[in-house]
Design a protein that fits this description.
Cof, hydrolase, HAD_sf, Hypothetical Protein, Haloacid Dehalogenase-like Hydrolase, Chain: A, domain 2, HAD-SF_hydro_IIB, alpha/beta, 9 helices, globular, Rossmann fold, magnesium ion binding
């Protein structure tokens, strides 16, 4: 019996144009409500961003944001797990080492980018961050920091990810996408958020279903009873999932959810 359905957003739920079939979703959500199934958006993105994409249903939904570091129901934040000062300073040293790459720091109050990376980069990030501030440096942020994202060329990402994992074993590194590396608390991933909801609502992980496409979905895909990835998923995500379905541009996740509910 399914008691919880969780899905990633980019490359999974959303099309390349950052849209989804809202009419189909409202029918699905009504069925989930009738059947007592909790619907969870589990994303590496900012809470404000993913909340805003569901204007008619967000108050009845659950959100796991920032790769598991923040859990909320509607506007009620249930749990926050921020980086320690020590780990954040280590990550800033990594950022300095790779200073040619663009960086985003994600916190509870806002996300932050550097002035040196330019206005165009900040505008591009607004697809993922509702709250975004441009700062001179990251040394004096008055915020609870969840993660830091390093943007890297696609051909360099796998090797750099492996190198960082070897050189800094005390930090958690995952591929946020084919062109980004998320740096956060060791062991932090979307499964941590699902485990929190599991304990809070006494839902066994075998009663959960999850959909994803990237390295930051692997923990969640392995944690649940049934897992699916989209056709364009990274190899590491495909190897962790039970089944590969169609692409996000075909609304494959929504179609699979409709099938599961019926």
């Amino acid at each position: 019996m399914i008691k919880l359905i969780a899905t990633d957003m980019d490359g999974t739920w959303l099309t390349d144009e950052k849209t989804y079939d809202e009419e189909l979703f409202l029918r699905e959500f009504a069925l989930m409500q009738e059947q007592g199934i909790k619907f969870v958006i589990a994303s590496g993105n900012q809470y404000e961003n993913i909340y805003s994409r569901f204007p008619k249903t967000a108050q009845q939904m659950y959100f796991i944001a920032e790769n598991g570091a923040l859990v909320a129901k509607g506007r009620q934040v249930l749990h926050v797990d921020s980086l320690s000062d020590e780990n954040f300073q280590t990550i800033l040293e990594i950022v300095q080492t790779y200073s040619d790459e663009k960086v985003t720091v994600s916190g509870l109050a806002s996300a932050y980018v550097l002035e040196k990376d330019g206005q165009r980069y900040a505008e591009e990030l607004k697809k993922y961050y509702q709250k975004l501030r441009i700062v001179e440096d990251f040394n004096h942020l008055d915020d609870q920091i969840f993660k830091v994202t390093l943007d890297v060329p696609e051909d360099r990402m796998p090797k750099l990810l492996s190198k960082l994992q070897r050189d800094y074993p005390q930090i958690g590194f995952v591929s946020g996408s084919s062109t980004s590396i998320d740096m956060s608390t060791k062991g932090m991933n979307k499964a941590v958020g699902l485990e929190y909801l599991s304990k809070k609502f006494h839902i066994n992980s075998r009663e959960m279903v999850a959909f994803g496409d990237s390295g930051n979905d692997v923990g969640m895909l392995k944690y649940v009873g049934r897992s699916f990835v989209t056709a364009t998923a990274l190899p590491v995500a495909k190897s962790a999932a039970d089944q590969v379905i169609g692409s996000s541009n075909e609304s494959a996740v929504q179609k699979e959810i409709w099938h599961l509910l019926n």
